[in-house]
């Protein structure tokens, strides 16, 4: 047995570029170089600015739900940069793919496999999980998540999966079977290399981490709500988070189990999904899509929650149709588990089975339509301000409706037969997820950013980024509908029909615009940090918010609330402002108990990454070492006793009274001055329109 298993010097893209110099190998080597340069640059910057100690103390070992949420979002943004870059490379390749193209077929297949896996599991999921982490405890009046350390572990498991995907760009190759990794192609016979193993050991910990997050979110909402916060007084974002959490609990185990079954096929000679000895790959398709389609709504429901908050806040109105929105949210969560088979209408089921799932797929569009009409009714005759979140909302209204309508079209099995595996399907999928999820998450980040960091994001650069995302999406993905109807297959590394070229050129130009949108998004954060004093909103309510999170300072202290609020109505903070009593003094403060810092999540991340890497390359001694370390970490945590810290009442009172004094010394600003330096986070409320 070799000490390093299957590892050798020939598994890097640099070796390929030296031995077989070509555009294809240079692109691969260049991508690997960017990962290495990026990692080294981060290490140098942390050392140069002496940030290792605060990074360790305030972030990596913190159990604060807000900091964990921020780390989820940072992870997602890093992976977004890679995912968008890979998408742009694919669009550029296809624009030059008439009778060939710069990339090899395997390299192109690897790109669309990593792109899909990253964007679904390591961009969209961390964005959703991060935003829920930050917002939900604040909206329901809780101090933290129900299980703060498990929250940290969930992040560690997700980060481990993301780390393995990044490593696969430098050491070895990723799988080439798409983000779904269908066997038998990804089985040992057809794919004997390390690629499918990278996919398995990236997806398994991420799936487990997401399931644990779902449990944490659900228990937090069930058990940690403030007094008086009944279910029908919860903000819509919290409702969507609850339904998402329930879906995560039930939908994540199938992808984890199907991935482990595929691992048993590859490592232990099992035959769950092989072509012989009783194997049946359709079992994989069914199990995977039992996760795959609820996953779409796991991602989009929190975005629906964002749109509900944005529509009400930036129109200065009470949310229209609250009960119907709650009902629609619960309906979507239930129906989403009944539509998975529409992903493989063409795989041999009977017509009656296809019809049943087609009807279910059409039905799920109804509650979504209810939501769109409710948001439009909320905006109707409101005091609308065209801030960055509202720009994203406008793009969502137009583009998501198109994506939803094409979904209803694809719900018809006879039509699906004609366009299945064409670029029409690619256009539909992106038409739902980018306006529905990415726009929603970017709007949510802009909306709640002041709560976490104490200053607003720059509106000028934010608006530029939002505009570029909308235009870039239209130019990149709407032409794919045309190409799909012309019969161009998806995942094609080359083609022979020159009629595809005009739309391919337009899509490639759109990809350049999306790269500009990504750059503008990061520029927004950089400019905002540089101008944070001008953008500061320490008093905590920059948007004239309606829910409990806006009744706290910015940034929010670790304990969230000096005294747990008592809720007597929906939109409690808005009604307090309307009644002139939003910042009542506190007569009695008490000590607050919070979890201590812990290395549990970081240790789990490192050990899981090491275990996964060792399994990919068959380094069995390292598997044993890392897995043993993982077990010992959990056992040691079980025996830990000093796990809590006490914040003295005097310290809580000092900070809270200082904030109340600052509020008393300031004058609220109107919505006309919302995006100026006069906005310090104290709102002079508009008339509340019921």
State the gist of this model.
65% of the residues lie in helices and 1% in strands. It has 690 residues and is mainly alpha-helical. It has two domains: 1-50, no CATH class; 51-598 and 643-673, Up-down Bundle (Cytochrome C Oxidase, Chain A), CATH 1.20.210.10.
Largest sheet: 2 strands, antiparallel
How would you describe the shape? globular
Q: What is the CATH superfamily label of the largest domain?
A: Cytochrome c oxidase-like, subunit I domain
- CATH fold type of the largest domain: Cytochrome C Oxidase, Chain A
- N→C terminal distance: 73 Å
Helix content class: 55-70%
Lateral strand order in the biggest sheet: 1-2
Structural class: mainly alpha
3D architecture notes:
The structure is a single chain. Helix content is 65%, strand content 1%. The protein has 690 residues and is mainly α. The protein has 2 domains: 1-50, no CATH class; 51-598 and 643-673, Cytochrome C Oxidase, Chain A (Up-down Bundle), CATH 1.20.210. The protein has a two-stranded antiparallel sheet with strand order 1-2. Helix 13 packs parallel to helix 16. Residues 50-568 form the Cytochrome oxidase subunit I profile domain. Keywords: Copper, Electron transport, Heme, Iron, Membrane, Metal-binding, Respiratory chain, Transmembrane, Transmembrane helix, Transport. Belongs to the heme-copper respiratory oxidase family. It holds the Pfam family COX1.
